[in-house]
Predict the 3D structure of the following.
Amino acid sequence: MRLIFFDLEGEGRRHFYPIALSRPIWELRCGMTSLGEKLVAKTGINDVAGFVPEYMAAACRSRKPDRKINDLGVLKGDDLLLVNPRVKAAGFSVPTKGPSEVGLAEDGQVLYARVAKADVGKLKTDSIAGFLDSAKAGLKTVTANLPTWNYVWDLVLASPHQITDDFKAAGRTGIEGTVEQPNAIRGHKNDIYIAKGALVHPMVVLDAANGPIYIDENAEVHPFSRIEGPCYIGPKCLLLGAKCREGNSFGPVCRIGGEVEESIVQGYSNKYHDGFLGHAYVGEWVNLGALTTNSDLKNDYSNVSVMLDGKNAIDTGSTKVGSLIGDHTKTSIGTLFNTGAYVGCMALIMATGKPLPKFIPSFAWFLEGVVTKGFGKKQLYETAKIAMSRRKMAFDEAQQGLYDSIFELTKPERDEAVKKGRKQMVGK
Amino acid sequence: MESVADRVKKVTARVLKVDPKDIKPEQHFAMDLGAESVQSIELVASFEEEFGIEMDEDAALSVETVGGAIDFITKVCKEQGVKV
C-alpha cells in the first residue's frame, strides 16, 4: 500500500504560514517528529509520496530526492491511502485495509481517501485535485470526525504533550552518548535518553521530573545549561548555557542559548545569545541576534491574536502565543517582538528599541521602524547562500525558484506595508 | 511646478539633513553627502513617495550621484506615465 500526503492550495494552507510558506504542512514539527513522520508511524506504510502546491515542488524534490512529489504516477499500481497532513496522527483511526472510502470533514473537505487499486481506473488521474474530486463523487463517502491541526500555533501549544507521547513511542532510555561529570539529573533516569555521539558537558542540569528529555545524536550541551523536560534536542544541536525550560523541540543543527520555553525551532537556526523565546515557532536558517526577545503573554492575560495576512486578527484562544518566524529571517541585536507576532520568511529586522509591529511580511527590510524594500531580494539570497554554506548546504536553483515564487505570492501584503512605511518615513 | 532637480534636492536635503543650496548634481550621495546604507534606502523610499513612482531597488541603489538620481527619476517617471 502507498501512503500519499496531499497539501493543496487553499485558504487552509495560510493558517500554517509563515512556516508552511516554504515547505509542505507534513514537514512541520510537533513534539519530537514532523506531522508526516507521525502519520507514517501510525499507518505503518513506508511507501510514501506527496502532493504540494506546484511552486514548492522542485525545492521539495531537491531537498528529499528519494520522495516522489507531484508525480501523478504514484496514483496507479497499488492500493492507496491519501491523507490530508492536517489530520492528527494520534486520532487517525482509519484501517489501512478495506474497501474504497473517502472521509470528509463536516465542511466537505477530504481528510483521507482509501482507494483500492481496482477502483483507481474509475477516477481522474490528470491532477491530484481532480483525483480527489472524482473520488469524492464516485466512491463511498463517510463523515469522518477526525481531529485536525487548524493553525500553526496549535502545533506549538500541543508540542510539550506530544514530546512526552513521542518519547514513549520511541521506546529509548538511558545514556548512549557521553555525560561528563559533575552534572545533575532530576527525575527518573528512564525519562532521559542521550543518543550515541551526544555530549553533555559538566555542570549541566537535566530535569526530567515533569517530562522526558531526548538528546539526539551528536548534539552537544555546554556547561550551565538547564534542560527541563519534556524536551527534544535534535541531531547536531548545540546548547550554549541555555535556560531551556519545558516543552521545547529543536530540529537538527540548531544553536540555542538564552531562555527558551515551549517553542519549536524547525532546524538549522541560531538563537545563540541571551534573550527570551517563548511559545514561538521558528523556521529554518533563522538567525536571532543577541537579546532578541518575544512576548508570549499579554499584560492583561487576554487571549493572544495573530494576523496571518496582515489585516485580520485571529483569536488563538490561548493566553500564550509567541512569535511565528519564517525561514531565513534575521534579527538584529535587541529586537523585541510583540505577543503573537508574525514575521514572514527572508525578512531582515533592525531593532527600534520598541516592540515591532505584529505583522512583518516576507522579504521586508524592517529599518528605522518601517517596512522598506531595502536592498532587495538579491542581497537576501546572497546572505542565504553564505548562511547555508556555513552548514555545508547549498541555496541551489530550486531553492531560489521557491523563494522567487514566495516573493510573488507575498507581494500584495509587502507592497501595502512598504507604501505605509514610505508615508511614515516621509512624515517623520 | 518645481523641476525634478529641485524636488530631488529637496528630498535629499531632508533625508540627509543638509542645506539644499549646498547640493550639486555632481555630488556623490555617500562620499560627498555622507549617506549611510540605511539612509540610501530612506532616500529611495522618499523619492518614490515624492514622485508617486515605483523604482526597482537594485537599479535605484546603483545610482551614486545627485545628477544620476535626477536622470534616473526622470526616466522612471516617463516610463510610468508620471508628469514632471
